[in-house]
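A.,

Following up on our hallway conversation. Structure tokens first:
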């Protein structure tokens, strides 16, 4: 017990690791950084990796649960996963994780993530048109970030670009939209098959763009 904070604290790395957020090794390294035994630069050198992050969120999940029932809303998640996971695999995602009505996929490069996003929207539209989705079609929105992140946690991506991609995909994008950060735009702006439209950033502290396929001539 420390007189500066006279209450119990959970500091055992093994016990903390059982929470499921980070590994015991990561907790030990955090402790070493806090104690000055490991520099922040060395910590970053160990865990940092340049990554493109695609965050896909299903739209209308809460409303679907209230309107159609919990099981039907969960079936919509299942439908989205059956359609979207093969797209991410084909596009070369090196990690795909599901959480509630979200999918997170990691790519080595931003162009691959953007190509996957547009194909995801196309496949979802095709699935809805097929009649397999029943009366409650699947709709998704996507945010993409790109940059140096820390390969920590279940998604192996923690940092500013992960936060931005999540904000765009989960809170900002509407159904069938793909929004990208400035870093992604800088990496793919040369692609003539896409239209990049800057968005009003009054509600966010960073610039972002709406991406659409350029209409065929």
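Then the amino acids I'd put at each of the 217 positions:
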């Amino acid at each position: 017990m420390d007189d500066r904070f006279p209450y119990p604290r959970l500091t055992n790395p093994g016990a903390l690791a059982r929470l499921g957020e980070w590994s015991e090794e990561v907790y030990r390294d955090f402790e070493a950084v806090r104690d000055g035994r490991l520099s922040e630069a060395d910590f970053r050198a160990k865990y940092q990796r340049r990554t493109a992050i695609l965050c896909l969120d299903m739209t209308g999940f809460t409303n679907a649960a209230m309107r159609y029932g919990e099981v039907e809303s969960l079936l919509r998640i299942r439908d989205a996963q059956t359609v979207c996971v093969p797209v991410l695999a084909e596009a070369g995602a090196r990690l795909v994780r599901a959480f509630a009505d979200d999918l997170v996929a990691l790519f080595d490069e931003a162009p691959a993530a953007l190509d996957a996003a547009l194909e995801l929207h196309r496949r979802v539209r095709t699935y809805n048109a097929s009649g397999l989705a029943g009366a409650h079609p699947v709709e998704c929105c996507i945010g993409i970030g790109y940059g140096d992140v820390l390969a920590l946690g279940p998604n192996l991506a923690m940092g500013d670009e992960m936060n931005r991609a999540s904000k765009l995909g989960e809170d900002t994008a509407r159904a069938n939209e793909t929004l990208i950060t400035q870093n992604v735009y800088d990496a793919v702006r040369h692609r003539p098959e896409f239209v990049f439209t800057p968005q009003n950033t009054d509600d966010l502290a960073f610039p972002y763009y709406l991406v659409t396929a350029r209409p065929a001539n």
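The chain has a mean pLDDT of 92. Curious whether your intuition agrees with the design.

B.
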